[in-house]
Structure formats: structure tokens, C-alpha cells
Amino acid sequence: MWRRAARRSPSGVSPPGSASGSWPGAATCGWGCARSCRSRPGADFVLDDFAVTDLGPATGAQACGTLEVTPAAPAFEQGAANEVTTTFTNLEEVAVRDVAVRLDVPEGWTVEGDGAGSVEPGGKLVTTWRVTPPAGAPYGTYELAATASYTAGGAARTLTASASVRTLPPPPAADAYASDLEWVSADNGWGPVERDRSNGDTGPADGGPIVIGGRAFGKGLGTHAPAEVRFYLRGRCTAFTAFVGVDDVQATRGSVEFGVVADGVERARSPVLRAADAAYELSADVTGARYVDLVAGDAGDGVGNDHADWGEARFRCS
Fold this sequence. Notes:
Elements: E1 26-27, E2 45-47, E3 50-52, E4 65-71, E5 75-76, E6 82-90, E7 96-104, E8 110-112, E9 115-119, E10 124-132, E11 141-152, E12 155-167, E13 176-177, E14 185-187, E15 194-195, E16 210-212, E17 215-217, E18 220-224, E19 227-232, E20 237-246, E21 255-262, E22 265-269, E23 273-274, E24 280-285, E25 291-297, E26 307-317
Parallel strand pairs: 5-12
Antiparallel strand pairs: 1-4, 2-3, 4-6, 6-10, 7-9, 7-11, 8-10, 11-12, 13-26, 14-19, 15-18, 16-17, 18-26, 19-25, 20-24, 20-26, 21-22, 21-23, 21-25
């Protein structure tokens, strides 16, 4: 069974509940909403040894709650309904009976969903929306913006949050190297997936040439197990081929298993390949597939040194 690559948090961003920030796509309440505090004379809020004192009323009513926007996938298919979830959490001391959550989408897109409801203190209002980009929407990045409004203690309060999604890249119209195509998503066990070079360190474009068993490849993908790279083909391709193996930068250690998955069905798998093994020719019939995933697994013995190369990775398309 394949083990999926871990997704990493963006550098400098803290998860929900962290004191240093909030998660992308989420809006949080201010200092005044926090309740898990121990008392200290003269302090209105205490976190560890850091005290905050109220300097007076702020203009407008402080919303005590959180709002998150969570797309079901990082890339949305044009002309099809895609799911987005909004989650409003009530951190007020009282129930709010008139919560209204709205999701705004780019011009020309459509959205369906009902974000109205009542929420008890500490409760959540979770709404699933169906968001459809136009069939001709260009490949690009778009913002989805949510607003939650309600009243508490007779005062109107508002929270906002947003998330970004991409539309699908255009599928190949002819034979194409994988490294020349935009992928839908890419998970990698160490640093980013590299184009036409081996996996390096944690930065982009920091790998060396792709070399497997002494054989160099000018085109291909450099990954590190566990890895999964997804391509959108929209049924236009018939075959995938590549020479796979552990990159020669790992002289004595590393073991990887390679696979090709088309629309959720495994179409090809390599034997376990180790450091210094010759490149293995992997081929798969992907006729009619909408999505193809290139998967590199750690062969069950851990991910250390598993620099997984896809030399001359290529789709046959028309």
C-alpha cells in the first residue's frame, strides 16, 4: 500500500490555536475572546509569562469566533462543481441565533450552499458549498472569500476569511515530458519536486543532474519518497514511460518503489530499486485516464536517502 507524502506547513505559518498566527484560510477572534487564562493582578490576558492589559474600548464590536475556508482540493476543475467547506466557531459567551455565512467567488463562477443557522457557545456551523468555475476559466489562481455575520448582545459582528484555489492546467495536446507540464498537485518527502534535475535539499531548483546507475537523463522529475505528483490528462493520453531509480547522489543507501496510478487504479509498479541499481524502464497504459499520479514509495524501510528519479518521464498523447 502506498504511503502518501506528508504535507508541510508554509514557512512561518502557525497552525490554528498558535499564539504566533492563524492558519491560512482562517480568521480568528481577538485577545478579548481567549478564556484559557490564569489570573494576574492588573492583567486582562495571560499567556505563559506574557501579559496583556486592556487599554480601553476599541471602535466597533469585537467578534469572538473563528471562520475557516477549506477547499476540498487545491485545484478546481472548470465546468464542474467543486466542494468548499466553511466553518464558523462561536466563541461568544452566549448562543448566536442569526449566523449568516456567505461565500463570494470570482466573477462568472457559481456557488450553491446555505450558511444560515444558530450556534451555541463553543459550537460550530459547518457549511458545504458547491463552487463551479466556468468551463472556459483560464488556468490560474483565484480567491474564495467568506464572511460570517451575526449579533451578540445586540451588537452586529463580522468575521472574514479567504482561501486560494487554482483551476486545472490545460491537458497535453501532444506527446509531452512530465517536467514540461503543469501538475495539479505535488507532495514530496523532502523539499519540492524538481524539474529536469534530481531532488536536492529543501529549496527549489537545488538538485543536481538526474543520474541513475551511471546513466544521465536531461529530462525528468526528481522526487523523494514518499512522493506523489498528479497530472491532468482529460483522457487525451495513452501511455506513460520513464526510467526510474535511486539517484546516484545516494551511493550506497536508499530504496524506492515506483508506481503509476490512473484514476485511482494502479497501472504499473516497479520492483524495489536500490542505490547503484541500473535504471528500470517503467511503462503504463493510461488510455482514457483523466488523472495520473506518479507515486514513489519508501519500500517499507523508511525514507532515508530515498531520492527517487523519473528519467525521461513522458506521456504519449494526441
